[in-house]
Amino acid sequence: MNRSLLVKIFGFPATLIHGNLAVLDRWLWLKSRLPKTRNGETLLDVGCGTGAFSIGAARRGYECLGLSWDERNQTIAGERAKLSKADQAKFEILDVRRLDDRRDLVGKFDTAICFENIEHIIDDRKLLCDIAACLKPGGRLLLTTPYLLYRPVTAGDMGPFQKTEEGWHVRRGYNRAMLSELCEHAGLTVEEFAGCTGFLSQKLCWLMATLEDVHPLIGWGVILPFRILPPMFDSMINRITRYPYYSICMEAYKPRYGELPSHASR
Q1: d(Cα 118, Cα 245) in Å, to the nearest integer?
Q2: Structural contact between residues 99 and 118, judged by C-beta atoms closer than 8 angstroms
Q3: Is residue 128 part of a domain?
Q4: pTM, full prediction
Q5: What is the DSSP letter of 95?
Q6: Is residue 212, in this structure, part of any structural domain at all?
Q7: 7-63, pLDDT tens digit by residue?
Q8: How far lies 212's CA from each of 137, 153, 154, 158, in Å?
Q9: Is 45 in contact with 252 (CB distance < 8 Å)?
Q10: CA separation for the pair 98, 71 (Å, rounded)
Q11: How many structural domains is the chain composed of?
Q12: Is 94 in contact with 68 (CB distance < 8 Å)?
């Protein structure tokens, strides 16, 4: 099936249902923290995949740059941006492990997003520092990554995790303390933690993965009618059962001012 056929028919919303159910969960979390703007605010999408979040942000008024090492994904992202009339979304090929090579991006962005990417990177401290450097003073980082104490959805979630960066996760995930430690090292202040991809999403992800072993279209087609359920009920279910979210979400802030002069703290 043409990877962008549904986008041709339905526009931007189809970018959120092409694959993993968790994409919609992450978008809903991002959208609630990304107010519409007409001020030319800039957004950097670090590890943008096929561009759904960059496209969505562009439609909310942001000048977006999506970065990924994958040329095929960047081609798809550019195509979907045009189909979604998201002209403010641009995509460039870059291995985000070498983000610091792009000196032209330093201090340029009001917001950076990094969704389900840091768990693929061995030198996570460097990645956070490089992202922080791209933010303007007062800028925000919105990040999601697997929660350290998630319950495995598929066998692969139990490991073994890779010792080298070959495409899969190099670590199980993160908790609040681990992310706070990274932010402190990068000069960022954590504002808020949350979770996304709850019980229903996880069970539907398992069912979809199981059915896709038979045929990808079977998994996608069977799950499609049920995609509306997690946004409606997952928050309530997780609140009642305390079932762990699959991903931990973090909003962090780059201070507008450097270290205060001594007289200012008196």
Answers
A1: 17
A2: no
A3: yes
A4: 0.93
A5: -
A6: no
A7: 998 999 999 988 788 999 999 999 999 999 999 999 999 999 999 999 999 999 999
A8: 45, 14, 13, 20
A9: no
A10: 16
A11: 1
A12: yes
